[in-house]
Specification:
- With 243 residues, this protein is mainly alpha-helical.
- The chain folds into two domains: 95 residues, Arc Repressor Mutant, subunit A (Orthogonal Bundle); 139 residues, Up-down Bundle (Four Helix Bundle (Hemerythrin (Met), subunit A)), CATH 1.20.120.
- It is 67% helix and 5% strand.
- A four-stranded mixed sheet has the order 1-2-4-3.
- Helix 5 runs antiparallel to helix 6.
- The longest helix is centred in the middle third of the chain and has 25 residues.
- The protein is globular, with a radius of gyration of 18 Å.
- The relative contact order is 0.14.
């Protein structure tokens, strides 16, 4: 695939300045301010996942620092995380390449994601704090709204929040580390193909059902809802392979 220079725009500053919504394990939860690295990661990751930075685009720390309005050290740290997650490739002395998308590789990713998501759903249902359960209810309501309005960006942002909250609620660092490697790739693949192969309202409702099962503390049902969602995601992915 030919390399392309990414356009420099103001979209990198999207969502900058929001508070991180990671629940604490205690009974009182004060909002935690994001670090500059977390802000940089979230801004760049959203641009890659939503294809404003496309596969084959060449990035630079200087360009991203200017568009995100964040210093180069946090940008560099964010890019290192994105490289570990497979969303970019760092080319020594050449730049940073936004990675390609391969539907067949996505099917292999889903084999791993299915098992991890079932584990995290069940563990989250059993171990979530009261605040985390309340957060799941709010995400479920947001997913219901996204389903009614067919709002793709709301869905994408809620999906990221849901994934993070599910990881936090499970309190399993080993599963968390593995799951974080898969999320961005999965979300980007969805955004690339959902207009032609997916039913966004259905997918949002499936997320809402899973979130509510975790909130209720029913591990068996949460695992079933996770499998139901993964069944749909797999069928969507296979449909893109056959196109």
């Amino acid at each position: 695939m030919p390399l392309r220079k990414a356009a420099t725009g103001s979209s990198g500053a999207l969502a900058i300045g929001r508070l991180a919504r990671r629940p604490d394990q205690g009974t009182a939860t004060a909002p935690r301010i994001e670090t500059l690295t977390e802000r940089a990661y979230r801004a760049i990751e959203e641009q890659i996942v939503t294809l404003r930075l496309k596969p084959g685009d060449i990035l630079s720390e200087q360009m991203l620092s200017a568009t995100c309005r964040i210093g180069r050290t946090p940008i560099r740290e964010a890019l290192q995380r994105l490289a570990r997650e497979g969303l970019v490739t760092i080319l020594p002395r050449k730049g940073i390449l936004v990675s390609d998308i391969n539907p067949r590789h996505q099917l292999l990713l889903l084999e791993v994601r299915r098992e991890l998501e079932r584990l995290l759903s069940r563990a989250g249902a059993e171990r979530a704090t009261r605040e985390q359960r309340a957060g799941m209810i709010e995400i479920a309501r947001g997913m219901d709204r996204a389903a009614r309005s067919n709002d793709d960006m709301s869905f994408m942002r809620l999906d990221r929040e849901f994934n993070q909250l599910m990881i936090d609620a499970a309190h399993n660092d080993y599963a968390a580390r593995s799951m974080k490697l898969l999320q961005g790739l999965s979300r980007r693949f969805w955004y690339m193909h959902y207009r032609t192969a997916a039913d966004l309202p259905l997918c949002a409702r499936l997320h809402a059902e899973q979130a509510r099962a975790i909130a209720r503390g029913d591990g068996a049902i949460a695992a079933q809802r996770s499998d139901k969602l993964m069944d749909y995601v797999e069928s969507f992915t296979r449909a893109t392979v056959s196109m």
